[in-house]
Amino acid sequence: TQQPLLTTRSTREWQAADAAHFLHPFTDFQSLARKGSRIITRADNIYLWDSDGRKILDAMSGLWCVNVGYGQQALIDAATRQLRELPFYNSFFQTATPPAIELAELLAEITPPQFQHVFFTGSGSEASDTVVRMVRRYWDILGQPQRHTIISRKNAYHGSTMAGASLGGMGAMHAQGGLPIPGIVHIEQPHAYQLAREMAPDAFGRLAASWLEDKIIELGPDRVAAFIGEPVQGAGGVIIPPDTYWPEVQRICDRHGILLVSDEVVCGFGRTGHWFGCERFGTRPDLMSFAKGVTSGYVPLGGVMVGERVARVLIEQGGDFEHGYTYSGHPVACAVALANIRLMQQLKLVERVRDDTGPHLASLYASLAEHPLVGRAETCGLMAALQLVRDKASGTPFPPERQVGLLCRSHCFANGLVMRAVGDRMIVAPPLVMTRAQVDEMGALIRLCLDKTWADVQHQGWR
Ligand code: PLP
């Protein structure tokens, strides 16, 4: 559909100015300059429009964040009101603003009962840094500074700051800038594609959890401070663990007195059909980081929910906690978050994902699993992955240099769909306001792009 454009320049003009001045995140600058970026100019509900007026279904919710969809008046009004009333004041040095206090109160209400306190940040990466500093501070206060090491997982994504990228398990990120920082180690993720195909899921989940205990014993339990993980690894490719994985991880952390940290930046605020991913997978984390969905991405905000085990020590024995950000508890961001959470409650979005659109997406993916290109189709709430394979029966992948995922993604771009490729894993995490009819609309586009990719693969003789 053609929409009136608010922009004043042509696509080519935008692209030229962009390439001349704007260094994008996670981008090969030369390739960007050659191909030209895609300029997104407006959005509504689950759709985007680019600078040529083309309509695109945003199956990634921006960057996993626009949970309530675009154009929600309640959020726009909350921001406008707060900008007029008090656009900024800090929360350093014993001051506070009403939106930050009210949001802290509401978060204590909607998160699991062990969480009564929150530390606000400006992003998910800053939340990861806060986790590292808070976990180490906790053990220092308790007189156990040797409990310093944090265990994370390969292929995890916890942000892009020095601590965030160190907690993350992305080899390409570690290769730049001398990461990880000391005291962070990584175990395998619960995703060994062939292994998981050969074993029953429950047994595989327990096996993957046992890799954590092996690492704890290798390091010495009294040297380990915490284990951190995303309930479902998002940026790593929507890696959904078997149901036995997290409860076993919880038992292992309990057995060794190790703090459990749930990174809910992607899974939080309804994505899995529960308010938080830890509720879907049955853990009781001590800390829980969040960002993205807390404001549906309308303005930046993140934070760490601090469980009573840690909060009591910090508050009663800790003295000054030498950590914080100018924008911790930013009043406009907090006002938008309040409006966002209340809107989610009013629309019963979490229940809708759990009982209606989530199961509907699961049945759609069960039918996509029949496609000749698809080796595996998995969903959890409103996030999903399709593993593209060369040989369906044996699950044999394509050689990575074929870049079949990128080929599929280019068909998505050309056909008005944002679907992300992580290697040959095609992933979606659409806005939670999506209706059943829109799930079907997305499904039809995905099928079309799979068909086109399949035709290319056959034409090239790649199978
Ligand atoms: N943690 C997870 C699980 C994420 O997916 C992300 C971002 O994608 C982050 C942390 C970092 O958040 P931010 O980009 O807001 O710094």
TrEMBL record:
Keywords: Aminotransferase, Pyridoxal phosphate, Transferase. One of its GO terms (cellular component) is cytosol. Its cofactor is pyridoxal 5'-phosphate. One of its GO terms (molecular function) is pyridoxal phosphate binding. CDD domains: OAT_like (cd00610). It holds the Pfam family Aminotran_3. The keyword Disulfide bond does not apply. Belongs to the class-III pyridoxal-phosphate-dependent aminotransferase family. This is Aminotransferase. The lineage of its organism: Bacteria, Pseudomonadati, Pseudomonadota, Betaproteobacteria, Burkholderiales.
